[in-house]
Amino acid sequence: MSIEEIKMAKRKETVTRVIDGDTFRTSSRKHSVRLANVDAPEKGAKGGAKATKKLNNQIKGKKVEVDTVDRDVYGRAVAKVKVGGKSVNKAMSKSKRK
Prior knowledge:
The structure is a single chain. By secondary structure, this protein is an alpha+beta fold. The chain is built from three helices and six strands. The chain has a single domain (about 5-95), classed as CATH 2.40.50.90. The protein has helices at about 5-10, 50-60, 90-95, and strands spanning about 10-20, 25, 35, 65-70, 75-85, 85. Strands 1-2-3-5-4 form a five-stranded mixed beta barrel. The protein is globular, with a radius of gyration of 13 Å.
């Protein structure tokens, strides 16, 4: 396995804090993680509290699989995330449309 493959490998991590409906922190990262292809409302914006609560209920305190696909301008991992084998990204995208 190359160094690049190791860096991009899927990692199991424990979620310590949900920041908003598309961003969270884990116990093993310096920077937060942002869900790829999810644009949830920010804190204080209409729907922000609901999105944050939904993500919190799905992942806080749980082991998640983080598959980093990119980095944003703030150094955050942009990732596909799964909990219990189910895509958190898809669940959060679907809830946005309802």
